[in-house]
Design goal:
The protein is α/β, with parallel strands linked by helices. The protein contains 7 helices and 9 strands; from the N terminus they run βαβαββαβαβαββαβα. The site of one zinc ion has 5 residues, from loops.
Length: about 230
């Protein structure tokens, strides 16, 4: 069962251009069997999730959320299987981890080394369930380093899309050995490690992504020149 565990919709993530139904249709077109919607700090309301699951059955939409911890290191985590809101912006990693454990959820470290080139020391003592190794927000040259870090922490790796745009959907995903039909079953299979990670193909998706990154870097350059211009005057 092919599932993308990390996606964003414009309904609840200001940074995403993807309408939730467009996201689902793209995933179906890419041959996926399910996805988790993991908007920034916001859950899909229960009723909407139920309606989407009914409308797109047998395709399956799972609950999820992406949480950013600012407390010490700026880090992002994907939380799966929890329907209660996670109010975590001022939480520490240890508080979040305990909350996820107590609530029967699953937690993985999203795009490691994206903002800071450090392995949070708390991870060494209490590692998350997994580490994201592939997504559109992970540079491909980090793959071997992330693999080493995951091994050192004794946790699994996850491939996902972190989709914010149509062309991201299906970038990387996991393939579960067994079919699951509920969030609790998904968490149980993930905890068992009964899945394979499907890495991104060297195809048009990667090229589109590279082009977008290049444009983004160019825009950033424009912005820093703009700021520099202000300082100089
Ligand atoms: Zn985002
Ligand atoms: Zn994300």
């Amino acid at each position: 069962m092919k599932i993308d565990l990390h996606t964003h919709t414009r309904q609840r993530s200001y940074c995403s251009a993807l309408d939730e139904e467009v996201l689902i249709r793209c995933a179906i077109q890419e041959g996926l069997d399910g996805l988790a919607i993991t908007d920034h700090g916001r859950l899909v309301p229960k009723q909407i999730l139920e309606e989407l699951n009914e409308k797109y059955h047998p395709f399956r939409i799972f609950i999820g959320v992406e949480v950013t911890l600012f407390a010490r290191d700026y880090q992002d985590y994907i939380i799966l299987g929890i329907h209660k809101p996670v109010m975590a912006s001022d939480w520490t990693y240890d508080i979040l981890l305990k909350y996820v454990r107590d609530s029967g959820g699953y937690i993985y470290w999203a795009h490691p080394f994206r903002y800071r080139d450090v392995l949070p020391p708390e991870h060494k003592i209490n590692p998350p369930d997994a580490v994201e190794i592939y997504s559109t927000n992970i540079r491909p040259d980090l793959t071997s380093r992330i693999k080493q870090v995951a091994e050192r922490m004794g946790c699994r790796t996850i491939g996902a899309s972190d989709a914010h745009f149509k062309e991201d959907v299906g970038y990387s995903y996991i393939d579960l050995e067994n079919e699951v039909s509920s969030d609790a079953e998904l968490v149980a299979e993930l905890k068992k490690g009964a899945f394979k990670v499907i890495p991104p193909g060297i195809d048009s998706k990667q090229k589109e992504k590279d082009q977008r990154d290049a444009k983004y870097q160019a825009d950033l350059g424009d912005f820093s020149n703009f700021v520099k211009g202000i300082k100089d005057t």
